[in-house]
Amino acid sequence: MNKTVPLREVAHSRSGEKGNSSMVSVIAYDAKDYDILRDQITVEAVRKVYGSIARGPIHRYEVPSIGALNFVMEEVLEGGRSRTLAFEESGKALSSLMLTLPVEVPSGYVGRRDRDQSHPIETLAQPSGRSIRLGSATAWSRDRFSAARDLVDRGDLDYICFESMSEVTMSAAQVAKQDTGRGGAAAMAYDPYLVDRLGPILKDCKEKGIRIISNQGWLDPVGAARRIKALADSLGLPGLKVAAVTGADLTDRIADMGLKFLETGKPVADAGASIVSAEVYLGCEGIVQALRDGADVVLTTRVADACLYLGPLAFEFGWPLGNHEKMARGMVIGHLMECSAQLTGGYFADPGYKDVPGLENLGSPIAEVWDDHIRLSKVPGSGGLLTPATCKEQLLYEVGDPARYLAPDCVTNLGAVTFTQTARDEVAVHIGQLAGQKRPDTLKALVGIREGYMTEEMVIFAGPSSLQRAKMTQDLLSKRFEAVNLKAQELRFDYLGLNGVHREATPPPGQDPYEVILRVALKTQDPHEAEKLRKEIDPLAVNGVAGTGKWATSAPGSRVRSVIGLSSCLVPRDCIETQVSIL
After folding, report:
1. Cα–Cα distance for residue pair 83/260, rounded to 1 Å
2. 124: how many CB neighbours lie within 10 A of its CB?
3. Which of 100, 216, 526, 528 is 20 to 30 A from 559, alpha carbon to alpha carbon?
4. What average pLDDT does the chain have?
């Protein structure tokens, strides 16, 4: 006899996004439960849970080596992170919806909450020979600042790496740079936190022989390198060698290369003057060359995230860039490390199901790599958690087909990867044979295109009839928008606390909520049209329904922002020239 439980009792999940697609992994807590996932978590079952927000195809990939499934849901993000009007723009909360899916288990089945959650430890032989230690200080530009200091002081590192980008980073920087000429605030073309992150550790890294690899160069790696070189001189480090890796920016020529967008098949040239940015994902070649040239600090433009780690490994071990098995080895390490504390308990904790000690003081991950062994750990004495489970979630994070993980330097079979807990907060990574295939003949480029403007406003309701008053306000605003002839390409109403995250897939509420926030968002071609939203929201304080509260943002000025749509295309590799400059 069987019983039905939510998937949350059997498996854990992580989700992320690429373009207009969300990737959602489902990973059995116990490998023996993989058959439950394989047999019951079907595409049809997933589509039923996600309902109308799953507007495109859903692809399912099996990863039995780690007891997991990986789902790619196309067209679930309403145009992608840079285009969507949805309140939750990135798809990172979609995993929690997956865990509500019902599954059948034996009547005596013990769910996750009632299980022993200790992590069995297996003793492996200590690797011999020379090893290289790499630390991950950031996962994106606005990550925590304390990690770098801890890694330098206590990590016993050879390299410290800073990942500073998301898909939208460079297009946003291009827009900020262009808007400077139209009265906007001055914008840096490299990461504005460059000095804040590297300044406090620069001298210690030089003295300890720790080399720095960072993609904080964004649109202007040479300018970033000059800034760090000047900082080094002021700190009494005149001999510090700083390298800039360039060659990714194709903004001025992408329309003339005869390419087509992958999403629509339309010529890139058709976007014409609307293109504000175009950059290709470079591989590790420029980083390797910079290290060969003796650089202490390497600042790059856009490179594939994992290549920040692959580059120093290829340099140190002398791996030929054409050896796809070695490149795949480095890509696995880089992919695990690129999101920093996501590997050590960040974005993992779920009370009662995945408990993480010391979450307020997460330790950053460290990879110790021998030519034929890999051990992951974290900063000694820090909070967080490093287990095969945290590694499995990161392994499948924002991955399409795990058997064909595409990158500039190779194609990697992530299904060949397994993990062993070798000590508390220490995991060995095992990579099977034939994990790599030769690199693609093309490189992926992201093209940012001006697609109008968007803005949002919120009004707040609490107490009896809060939902009814919020709905009344939506009807009232719709009529007033019609009266002022609002020309909106898209107009969206959300009820935060009810359906703002999972949108139309949200189950109906069991009772009337005590509080509701009505969020209104719109997209227009004309910024003056977008301004009409605030001009109708603010008067609700005296012209709306009873008890209408105002979103606590009273700053004057416009909250209208540009919409930069991201599309992708494939650029022939021989059209790209990576350049390295040493200061």
Report:
1. 20
2. 14
3. 216
4. 94
